[in-house]
Amino acid sequence: MPATAAEIRTQSSPLAGLLGACHPLPAAAVTLLTAVLALAVGRPLPGAALAVAAVAAGQLSVGWCNDRVDLRRDLATGRTDKPLVAGTVTPRAVAAAALGALLLCVPLSLAAGPRAGAVHLAGVAAAWAYNLRLKSTTASWLPYALGFGLLPAFITLPLPGHPWPPPWLTAAAALLGAGAHFANVLPDIEGDRATGVRGLPQRLGVRRSAALGALLVLGSTAALVVGPPGPVSPYGWALLAVTLAPLLLAGRRLGGRFPFHATLAVAGADVALLVAELR
Question: Structure pTM?
Answer without folding.
Answer: 0.88
